[in-house]
Every structure is written in C-alpha cells, then in structure tokens.
Please model this.
Amino acid sequence: MEQDYLLSAKNVDKSFTSDNGKQKVLDDISINVSAGEFVCLIGPSGCGKSTLLRLFSGLMKSDRGSIKIKTGAKLSFVFQNFGLFPWLTVEQNIGFGLKMNGESKEYIDKEVRKRIIQMGLDGFEAKHPKELSGGMKQRVGIARALSVKPDILFLDEPFSALDTFTAEKLRQDLLNIWHDSKLTIVMVSHLVEETVELANRVIVFSSKPGRVEKELEIKLSRPRNKRSTEFFKYVDVLSDLVQ
Amino acid sequence: MRYSNQLRFSKRKNVLKNKKKSSLISVAWILLFLIALTTVVNFSKLNALTFFEGFGVSLARISIAYIIALILSCIIALLITSNEKVENLTLPVFDVLQSFPSFALFPLMVASINSSEVIIISVLIIAIIWPILFTIIGGIKNRREDLEEAATIFGAKGFKRLIYFTYPELSPSIVTGSIVGWGEAWEFIIGAELLVNAKVGIGSYLGQLGNNKENLLLVFGILVLMILLFIINKLIWLPLLDKTTKYQSES
Model:
C-alpha cells in the first residue's frame, strides 16, 4: 500500500535548540502524498510547516519518524525569498541545477530557453536578480525549479513576498504548469483563499508544536470560481480551522 | 508600453554613457599620474633603475606573501566555520593572535631562519593574513540561508559547490579583505626590508636615501611609490571590487 505514495511521512518529530532550551516544532506528523496531487500545508506562523517542507526535501533531518520518497523521484524547491544567486544572470540561475548535474551545454541551453519562454522571461535572460521585480524573480525561481524536471515540487510560501496582482497571476501560471505536467506539488501557505484556489487537499496545522489538525479535500471543479458560494464555504471552514 | 520601453532604453543609454564616462575618467587619471611619475623621476635625479628594480622585487615579495595568505585564509576560514564547536574554540584564539604585533616575532625569525627572503615573506604573511581571514569569516557568517539551501537542492556538492557557489558567494569578502591586506603589506614590507638589510627592495632603497640624508629624494621616492600603488589600486583592486559587489546586494 505504501509504495503507491510518492511521498510519505510517518510519525515525524522535529525540535530546535535555542537559548530558551529545546523547542518542539513538529509533533508526530504523518502525511501521504500521491502522484499528481496538489497539496497545501496551512497553519499559523510558527507551526513548523516550512520546517516540514525542509524535512521532505532533505534539507533537514527529522529527530524521529521516517520520510520516504518513491525511489528515483526528483525533487525541486521554490523559496519564499526566491533564493536566486545574485552573481548569476537569469539564464545561469535557471540552468544552475542542470550544470550541477553535469548536463551538456547544448542540453542546458535548450532546456533553459524552454523555461524562459514558459515563464514569460523572454528578454530578461542576461539580467541579474537585482535588476528584476519581485514577480519576475519568482518566475526565475519557478523556472529554475522546473528545469531539473522534478516529480515533486515543494513551494515555501512562494507568493507571500509579492503584491496581490502579481501573486494572482503567478498562481494561475502555477496551476497551468501543474495541469500541463504530471507534477506533484506540495505548497506551504498562510492564506486560506490561496489554498482553496489551488489545492486538491489542504492539510491544516496547529501550532507550538506543529500537529496535523485536519485534512480537507477541496472538491471544487477547475477552473475554480473565486466568487462562488462553494468557494466561500471552503474558505469559511478552513478559516475556522486555522487559528 | 511604449513609454516603458522608452524609459528602459534611455535608462540603458544613461548607464552606458556613465560607464564610458567613468572609464574615460580613470584612464585620464592614470595618464595624468604616469606623466607626473615620469616628471618626478626625471627632475629628481631619483635613480630610476634602482628604484624600479626595488619596487619590482618588493612587489614580487608582496604578491607571493599575498597569494599564500589568501590560500591559507580561505582554507582556515572554511575549516573553522564548518563546525560550530571548532569555531567557538578557535575564534577567540585567533582574536588574541590577531592583536599580536607581527614584528615582535622578528628576532625569533632572524634567529631561526637563514634566508632573508623567507623572513620578509613570513612577516608579510603574518601581517596580512588577519584582515583577509576575518573578512572571509565575516562573509561566511553573513551567508544567506536560502542561497545555501538552493545550492543544496540544485545539487551543488563537493568541489563543484566550492567553485560555482562558495567562491562567488564569498568573493566580495575575499576582495574586500584583500584590499586591506594588500595595503598593510606595503606598510610592513618597508620595515621588514630595512630590518633584515635586504639588498634590493623599495624599503631598502628608501632606507638608504634616509640614511644618506637625501631628504628631498626620499620625499620624491615616497611620492612615486604612492603613485604606483594608486595605479595598481585603480587598475586591479577597484575593478575587482566593482565586479564582485555589483550584483550582490539584492534590493
């Protein structure tokens, strides 16, 4: 049964030691994600959702429990503050992962070109991150994440550093990418409406320590109408759960 | 759309114009200083051959010391920051060592090392390693966590990580520290050459002039040295600093 999941976490604990002593941020987390799902993790700040994403992607190690990712599945990550290398151009940033994987120059050029067109970055190839607006930076961040052809894409509050209009446009783009590819997405968010707009399934966290409070499937057809009564019902239910 | 295009275009034109202007100005400065240099050398009866031979030898000594100090700094900085316990133990030690005057080691070196070249270069290394080492450590401490994570996610490991990630990430601190270290090296080499009685070297030459009470020549000599160092700064260090810090601060 377990092999069917692309990502599966079981009884995961994580603590951090600070000056105030040891603090548990994640307590007994068990989550399963199937291929092709769009899962959102939501919860108040300090509930450890970003930490969980880092455990999933191997950036951190859990204290207890197991995290299993289907063998051979490739991971990628989109950061809240973009995480672009300031000394590299847009092109070089997008191709960084491919270069590290030892791909040929021809392949990298072709792949980067494809992502530049896909993310609407045409004409910005030679710019450095400093010269881009926030929205453009996150486009580069997403293009870089996609260039390695991941099976699972982790996004850590990817739109919270952006203004509302830019964020909305990028959300639509992300949905299109998810729709057109067989990508599995796990995204951390703190906006209820955003999760209802995007996810198949929302996992609600309580805070200090972070625990899975509830899982909610969003059974709305796509494209979703953000003005419909059903949409608001989900928003209401989730808003009550997130405290 | 048209307006924004226009704006973008004019902005770019301005940037290009400014770039051209600033490089023209620096070329003009250097030319001016070269003219001043030849005039000073011509009119002062400064022995140009001895002077430039001395300068060249000193420059070579400093370059060797600088390269060794730079490599050592990078290795030490990466080693002690790789482990928090090691860092907490060694940083205070380095802090104390840093304040130790490098010339105080001089008698010990003279007693134990035969070659005056080795003594000079060792003193230089000890003097200039600190600014380089501490700025690199500072750079490592101020690393952006999300960049580290991005490098890890996108597969930067081992040697490749060092070349394509760590080096460009730290190059602003490396260059900043180098500029300070390089400046200090010129301060120290004069003393070091005088103390070991080196036959050639800018310090030995200026020392000779001082001993012979040729004060006017000494002033001219110092002036020429200043001009040469200015040119090195303008041609090498400032462009390097500009190149490495240009895109670093993200708005």
